[in-house]
Amino acid sequence: MRLLPRLAVTLSAAALIGGLTACSEVQEVSNTLDKAQACLEATKVVGEVSSKFAGLAQNPEELGKALDEGAAKLEETAAKAGDTTLQEALQGLADAYQKLDVSDVNSAIDSAQQAATDTAKYLSDIQAACS
Question: Which positions carry the signal peptide feature in this UniProt record (predicted)?
Answer without folding.
Answer: 1-22
